C-alpha cells in the first residue's frame, strides 16, 4: 500500500492562486492588530464581480441591502429554471463566506462562482451574506448580522422568489463562515422562530480553535498552504474584544471545549461537517463533530484526506465537485424528512 502524501498534491494553477492569496493577506496584517484595508481594496478590486440580472450558467443574481449603516447586505442567487414556478418550491440556503472574520465578501469572484454552483446544483435559492469584519467590528457584531439576516428574510419574504420555501432553510458557511453559521443556528433555536425553520447546517471546514495547540496544528506547520498558527492567532486577536475570558477558549471559538454551550436541550438542526486532511484546523473540526454526536444531535462527517483548507472554492479540483454533490444529497435527505 502506498504511503499517504506528505504534502497536498495540487495543480500549479491552484498553488499559484494560494500563494497570491497568502501573500496579500500576510501583507495586509499589521503588527498593531489593524488591517491595511487600502491594500486589500486594491487586491479585491481585481477579483470582485457585480450582481447580474441576466442569467449566467443558469442563475441570476441581485444585491439586497438590509442595513446600509453597517453595510449589511446579501447577494441573492436564483436558478432560472425554477423562476416563476410556484409549484416547484426551493429550499433556501443562507451562506456565510470565510476569511477569518477579517477578509472577503459575497461579491468576490470565487464566492460568486461557488454560490452560483450551489443555486444551480442543489437546486436552491442562495442568500450570501455580507457581514461586518474584524478588527474594525469585533465579536459579537458578525453573529448579530447573521441573525438579523434571518429576521429580515421572515419580515421581507416578498423580496425572495415566490417559490423560496423558508420552512426548508439551511445555514451554510466555510471556515469563519461555518463558525458563524453554527452560532446563528444556535441562536435561531433559542429564539424559536415561527416563520422560518432551520432544518440543516453545512459546516465546511469550520474555523474553530482553542488555547491548546493540536497535533494537526503542529504537524502541518509549513505544509498547510493557507492556515497557520500565527495567522489564526492574529485573526482571533482581531476578532475578540479585550476583557476577562476573551481568549481562545471562549465558547464562540472553542465550541466543544470546557466553556461549551449546552445544546443538548436545543432542537439543533442536522449538521454536515466537512474536514480536509491538510487543514491545520481538522482536529478542532473533528472535535466539533464528536461534540454534536455526544449531545445527541444528528451529525455527519465528510472527509477529504488529500485536500487543503478552502479546497472547494477551486473548481479545477475534482473534490470540489464531489463536495457539492455531498451537500446536495444532504439537503435532499433533510427535505425528504419533512415532505
UniProtKB/TrEMBL annotation:
It holds the Pfam family Abhydrolase_3. It comes from the Eukaryota. Residues 93-312 form the Alpha/beta hydrolase fold-3 domain. InterPro entries: AB_hydrolase_3, AB_hydrolase_fold, Carboxylest/Gibb_receptor. One of its GO terms (molecular function) is hydrolase activity. Belongs to the 'GDXG' lipolytic enzyme family. This is Alpha/beta hydrolase fold-3 domain-containing protein. It comes from Fraxinus pennsylvanica.
Amino acid at each position: 500500500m502506498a504511503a499517504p502524501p506528505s504534502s497536498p498534491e495540487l495543480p500549479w494553477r491552484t498553488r499559484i492562486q494560494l500563494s497570491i492569496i497568502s501573500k496579500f493577506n500576510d501583507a495586509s496584517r499589521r503588527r498593531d492588530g489593524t488591517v491595511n484595508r487600502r491594500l486589500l481594496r486594491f487586491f479585491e478590486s481585481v477579483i470582485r464581480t457585480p450582481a447580474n440580472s441576466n442569467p449566467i450558467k443558469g442563475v441570476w443574481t441581485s444585491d439586497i441591502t438590509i442595513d446600509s449603516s453597517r453595510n449589511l447586505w446579501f447577494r441573492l442567487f436564483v436558478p432560472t429554471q425554477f423562476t416563476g414556478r410556484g409549484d416547484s418550491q426551493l429550499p433556501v440556503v443562507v451562506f456565510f463566506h470565510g476569511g477569518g472574520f477579517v477578509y472577503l465578501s459575497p461579491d468576490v469572484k470565487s464566492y460568486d462562482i461557488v454560490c452560483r454552483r450551489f443555486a444551480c446544483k442543489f437546486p436552491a435559492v442562495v442568500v450570501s451574506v455580507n457581514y461586518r469584519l474584524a478588527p474594525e467590528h469585533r465579536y459579537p457584531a458578525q453573529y448579530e448580522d447573521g441573525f438579523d439576516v434571518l429576521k429580515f428574510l421572515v419580515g421581507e419574504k416578498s423580496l425572495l422568489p415566490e417559490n423560496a420555501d423558508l420552512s426548508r432553510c439551511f445555514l451554510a458557511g466555510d471556515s469563519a463562515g461555518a463558525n458563524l453559521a453554527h452560532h446563528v443556528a444556535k441562536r435561531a433555536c433559542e429564539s424559536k422562530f415561527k416563520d422560518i425553520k432551520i432544518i440543516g447546517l453545512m459546516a465546511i471546514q469550520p474555523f474553530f480553535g482553542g488555547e491548546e495547540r493540536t497535533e494537526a496544528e503542529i504537524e502541518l506547520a509549513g505544509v498547510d498552504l493557507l492556515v497557520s498558527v500565527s495567522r489564526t492567532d492574529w485573526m482571533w486577536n482581531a476578532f475578540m474584544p479585550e476583557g476577562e475570558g476573551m481568549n481562545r477558549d471562549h465558547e464562540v471559538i472553542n465550541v466543544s471545549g470546557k466553556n461549551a454551550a449546552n445544546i443538548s436541550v436545543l432542537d439543533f438542526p442536522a449538521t454536515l461537517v466537512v474536514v480536509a486532511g491538510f487543514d491545520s484546523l481538522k482536529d478542532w473540526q473533528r472535535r466539533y463533530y464528536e461534540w454534536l454526536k455526544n449531545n445527541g444531535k444528528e451529525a455527519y462527517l465528510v472527509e477529504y484526506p488529500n485536500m487543503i483548507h478552502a479546497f472547494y472554492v477551486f473548481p479545477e479540483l475534482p473534490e470540489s465537485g464531489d463536495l457539492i454533490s455531498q451537500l446536495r444529497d444532504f439537503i435532499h435527505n433533510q427535505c425528504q424528512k419533512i415532505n
